[in-house]
Amino acid sequence: MLAGGTPRVTALPGAGRAHSEHQAFCHSSDEEFLALAVPFLQAAVKSGEPALVSLEPRRAELVYEAVADPAGLTFVAAGDLYARPASVLKAYRKRMADYVAAGASDIRIVGELPPVAFGYSWDWWARYESAVNHAYAEFPVRTLCAYDTRVAPPHVLDDVRRTHPLVTGPDGVSTADYIEPRAFLTAPWPVPPHPVQLRPPQLDLADPEPAAARRAVTEANRAALSPDALDDLVLSVSEVVTNAHRHGRGPVRLRLWSDDSHAVVTVHDTGPGPADPFAGLLPAADRTTGGLGLWLAHQLCEHVAMVRDDHGFTVRLTAGRLPR
């Protein structure tokens, strides 16, 4: 803490401009937020280095008014950017690669997840936060992730501490709870059921081939989903079923639930799941391992959960409106 109780950004031990830094800031007021974010961004403006800001509109406006020269910042609407974790990682990596190609040596990002991320889909956003430590490691980027403790529930803040090497808050800086990405991403993860899963499934198929899975999912969801959402779900199911047959361990089981506004499909096999802990969030370096299909599903579905347990590996695909 700085004198007067103002939180500060702390460099990671041993990190410099050639490496990434991933820090969370847990704040409980606009004043606390601005006390950290403004100097962090102002330093980038002063040095002429790139600085990205992706915040909820009200907080973005506060930053715009507080920074001396906001023209030096790039504002990206948080609602547009933070739709799906794999898409965010892809977009940021593309921007950072472009900045580095143009000569940048100290990229700065201030971002926050929309509150909707703290509900049903939090598991894949927690996976995203963990994967950032690996996905951005090659870039000279300092990322400051803001979490409003008035909005983020306790279980979210617990995962924030596990997925950020440094966490700054009113009580100082903590590193004690951080878990390395490979350990965090391969640990068993409790995923609450979607409300439609509380009743028997409409489809329960044993060892379906991809073509049969596509036909069954299409017929079962014509009335529930828009044509585009249905196409995305069908392609995702096809990819995941193919992966289960090719890389998992039989038997493969597909189950589907739907109502008038969304659909949930689970694909289960008795294998351990992908060896790559970043499967789905990042494109597979080795496409023979099946990571491409999961990566596509992560960009097409409204939510993808991956569950490892004593019974095997399950991928749950959700299309349509998400529950809160």
TrEMBL record:
GO molecular function, one term: protein serine/threonine kinase activity
Domain Histidine kinase/HSP90-like ATPase: 211-318
Every MEDS domain range: 22-165
Keyword terms: Kinase, Serine/threonine-protein kinase, Transferase
Any Pfam family the entry gives: MEDS
PANTHER family: ANTI-SIGMA-F FACTOR RSBW, ANTI-SIGMA-F FACTOR RSBW-RELATED
Name of the protein in question: Anti-sigma regulatory factor (Ser/Thr protein kinase)
Organism: Amycolatopsis saalfeldensis
